[in-house]
Write a structure and sequence with these properties.
The chain is α+β, with helices and mostly antiparallel strands and about 240 residues long. About 30% of the residues lie in helices and about 30% in strands. The strands form three sheets. Strands 8, 9, 10, 11, 12, 13 and 14 form a seven-stranded antiparallel β-sheet that branches. Helix 1 crosses helix 4 and helix 1 packs parallel to helix 6. The radius of gyration is 17 Å and the shape is globular. It starts with 5 loop residues before the first strand and ends with a helix. The mean pLDDT is about 100. It binds uridine-5'-diphosphate.
């Protein structure tokens, strides 16, 4: 399968059409942004880590947890063939431990274990700064149907329980993460976008060292090393 015209260029990925209208090719870059694009940089080798890790995790989620995903085939270190979907304009965030915007918004110190996993939805809109919304906002604005939100919520918690166990077995606490979903032509929901150190918070379970994009966001240093370490934990 070959790349045809570029359909889209985002902050961390480019998307290309293929000869098959139901498939496209995602190409992962080393570019990194944070704080709604205010902070920019590159993380050398990040595209390879995110592409390979995301593909591995989606394969496992599909085989072992019955989660439908957009993944079709890894084409190279940076390029992956995926199903062409219509992205639901929501960022779906699942949390196990308080961190980031949750800590700031609710005054819960970073690192506090939550009594149960939580889910929140943000409307994907850079100009508005991805505001948090509730389910009624989603139905009122037509971003997704009730049935689609039911599937998204069910899949998001199942992804959380599968990946929390997967990472804990590798010495990593899955603190929180963001998912995006897409719809196929018949409205069916599938997991899309990526699952990587750009979109998850990973803490070493022994030292609680941060092994994710927070090293870039907060200028902690050792960014490339953290991505490399997560690659080792996933692929052994
Ligand atoms: N996240 C993301 N993209 C976003 C916002 C958040 O991938 O645009 C991820 C982030 O990496 C973290 C989780 O979602 O794993 C929760 O992020 P939070 O709401 O705490 O926001 P942040 O502190 O990253 O601004």
């Amino acid at each position: 399968m070959e790349k045809r015209e570029q359909i889209y260029e985002g902050k961390a990925k480019k998307v290309f059409a293929t000869d098959d209208p139901s498939l496209c090719i995602v190409s992962y870059k080393d570019d990194a942004t944070a704080f709604n694009g205010l902070k920019k940089g590159t993380i050398s080798g990040k595209g390879v880590v995110n592409n390979r890790m995301s593909n591995r995790l989606m394969q496992l989620l599909s085989q072992d947890a019955g989660i439908p995903t957009h993944f079709v085939k890894e084409l190279s270190d940076r390029d992956t063939l995926v199903k062409r979907v219509r992205i639901v304009p929501l960022e779906v965030i699942v949390r196990n431990v308080a961190a980031g915007s949750f800590s700031k918004r609710f005054g819960v110190p970073e690192g506090t274990d939550l009594l149960c996993p939580t889910i929140e939805f943000c409307y994907k809109n850079d100009e508005l700064g991805d505001p948090m919304v509730n389910e009624y906002h989603i139905y009122a604005c037509g971003w997704a149907t009730r049935e689609q939100v039911r599937s998204i919520t069910d899949y998001a918690f199942r992804v959380n329980s599968y990946l929390s166990d997967f990472f804990l077995a590798r010495g990593i606490i899955l603190v929180d993460f963001k998912l995006e979903f897409g719809t196929l032509d018949d409205g069916t929901i599938v997991l899309a976008d990526e699952i990587s150190p750009d979109t998850c918070r990973f803490w070493d379970s022994a030292t609680r060292e941060k092994l994710d994009k927070d090293r870039f966001r907060r200028d902690l240093g050792g960014v490339e090393e953290a991505y490399g370490e997560m690659m080792k934990r996933v692929f052994g």
